[in-house]
Amino acid sequence: MRFLILFTTLFSLSSHVLAQDVFLPFEVQGTANVDTGTVNLILTADSIYYPKELLNLSAEIHDGRFFIKGKIPYAHPFYVVINDYRSEVLYIEPGKQTVIVDVTKSRGTPQVNNKVMKEFYTDYSDSYSVLWRRQDSIANKLSKLYNKPLDSLSKLTKLALEQEIREGYMENDRILLAYTKTHPNSYIAFWKLIHLLNFGYQEIFDAILPEFSNGIKNTHPGLLFKTKLAAAGVLGNGKIFPIINCVDENDKKLNASDLKRNKYTLIDFWYSSCSPCIGTFPGLCRVYDQYNKQGFEIIGISVDSKGKREDWQRIISEHKLVWRHYWDKDGVEATRLSIRAFPKNLLLDENGKIIKQDMKEEELSEFLSKNLVGSFIKSK
After folding, report:
1. What is the pTM for the complete model shown?
2. Which class does domain 19-110 fall in?
3. Residue 14 confidence (pLDDT) above 50
């Protein structure tokens, strides 16, 4: 018994020590093509991944120059924000580094002369260059279609675009896995993985994480991400959708039987001020009208905050969303499941098992047209 207690104590202490990050001085000597103003370094990930010392980094600009210093354990990602300008991601690491910001190039990547950014400009960018060009091509296609009414596009055109975008996401994940295998000490790859989990769990994430060095996995964000990934893994394809704590407008809770009444059920996470979420409603209505009587159902789950109950109900009424709706107040359950990007949907089969995710209108319609034959007797 004494040995067991001693072992448990030592294990707890060793785990605690592993999570202790050593802070080192850093300095940022920056220039920007504005004479005055304030430069802010904004977090790119949830603040829980950052030490408190890095939560509010800013400096005044004088004659186009700014200076920021402090202590940091290893490379962390930030956006540079100056007035209406916001950069793409850059990384600050221990030691001295210069940052050159061109505020005329919004969403551009500033010039930074540190070790991590050198990796970004070379190995990392080289690995993603083909995919980035392909994504630019898709973006150009979308921009040309932007001013055209969505209904004017053929079903095949919309379906092809949806599939092309989805394949791009999958290729992005495959590249990250390959890159991590050859760059196990890459903080760029590590923070990229943290970012991707915001858009929902993917099985490949479980393969990527072990490829990082122990030096990264045993940092505070490394240990925290491992926990977050395990929690998010319950939403993987093939898993039974968990019963979460949410209620309908009559305060009735969601239960397991609600997920098994139909051949297929789409769980749709959204919130009332989310424009992309609202933009999906016309398409969902069309799919619902066409396939509901054949065994298709939608369950909407809003993550609106406590004071937004009326807004939640108003949007449901205005857009004539006739399916069932539940409220995950303040998004507590969604956050626990690492759902941070909206809209987010999951398609369940009649056993409540997740079979597909993040389906757009045409993909969903195509799937249902092939898999719903005749009418389905709904269970009560």
Report:
1. 0.84
2. mainly beta
3. no
